[in-house]
Amino acid sequence: GGSLAVAPPNGDALTTTFVLSSAGWTDDAEDFPLTYQFQYQTTSTQPPLGLQGRTPSNKVSSDLPAGPDSTGNTITLICAVFDAALATASKTASAVVVENINLDVAQYVTDQLSNFDNVGDVNTVGQLIGNVATTVNKVDCSAVSAVQFAALSRKACSATPQTCGGCLTGY
After folding, report:
1. Labelling 47: which of 26, 127, 157, 166 has CA 20 to 30 A away?
2. What's the predicted TM-score (pTM) here?
């Protein structure tokens, strides 16, 4: 298996540029080339959102939305690696992304769309949609902690403000 690295390991939502890079993957010669897909996930109960579709590039740069308060603002980063036969393997890493209270989301959208006009990279639009949707739909879970949820055998707050998630497996 290979590896997934993220730099820096922490930063501010929608302003810090995170670089995800994957290396060290091997396969049989007839199964090359390898392609890489990068995604992030704010909670395990929500589907991953795309940073880069499947391409030969083993690196992507992106800003990220804030992670949930209930997980210490941690976001899971995912790299799936595909061979020519579409066999896949993946690695995860994490980054701590804190909310940027000084951010003007409307200006962020304008700036990102302007960047798309200059660069023309379709991944930029996907990142923009995912980042803005995650930011405007972020649920306030700041008054409750993961320790409280665990004591109640419940999942962390993620859908309703200041409220436990569903029951943990087995409860």
Report:
1. 26
2. 0.78
